[in-house]
């Protein structure tokens, strides 16, 4: 609900055209899947920050931070009351299989499966090199391959079509840089939130990559009236107006 309210408020105050509520729903669900806190106020704040980032941190009409990632990173960096549990999704094969299957469906729909598989390839190659260098059994590598948090990040966060580079080659370059920084943060700085922080710190590079490799910007279909959901915003207007009168 905080995410939906924030999106309604931003659209109303900034006088923007009506838009689909699905973006707010997806961002809030992403936060629910990952963030942990004993404070409902912090969870509400994280939802509001995620939605506001889409409307306020933009360059030439494009928001380059993944909203969920942006809110998570700020909570991790500046709040002691919120955290992410990297192992909360376990490392069971059945969980990994479901995440991969659903992830492929989502990324194919958004035309961003290239960055998901590219990131996984780069990151797993680094993990394989590390296991080989340290002389560890390869069962360690296959154990890491089934990590639920890694798969969620690959298919549902770095694959955001609105905040990733527009050009396919740009997305491969970007995924490589995120993989390298995530590896460094995890194994040299020993931070378990390496994936989230790496994407957060490198997201502004999207603007530079788009300049270097220009391509058509992704946009969700808007011709279908069902995509815009104007009744949702009109209902919010009536409810808030009624409350203010009393």
Describe the 3D structure:
The protein is mainly alpha-helical and 246 residues long. It folds into 2 domains: 1-84 and 222-246, no CATH class; 87-215, no CATH class. The protein contains 12 helices and 4 strands, in the order ααβαββαβαααααααα. Strands 1-4 form a two-stranded antiparallel sheet. The chain is globular. The relative contact order is 0.13. The model is unreliable at 93-101 and 224-233 (pLDDT under 50).
Keywords:
12 helices, two-stranded antiparallel ribbon, 2 domains, globular, 246 residues, mainly alpha
Strand content: under 5%
Total helices: the number is: 12
**How would you characterize the largest beta sheet?**
2 strands, antiparallel
Radius of gyration: 19 Å
Q: How many distinct folded domains? A: 2
- The sequence of SSEs as H and E is HHEHEEHEHHHHHHHH
Quick one: how many beta strands?
Answer: 4
Helix content: 55-70%
* Main structural class: mainly alpha
Across the major sheet, the strand order is 1-4
User: Overall mean pLDDT score?
Assistant: 77
Distance, first to last CA: 22 Å
Describe the global form.
Answer: globular
Low-pLDDT stretches:
93-101, 224-233
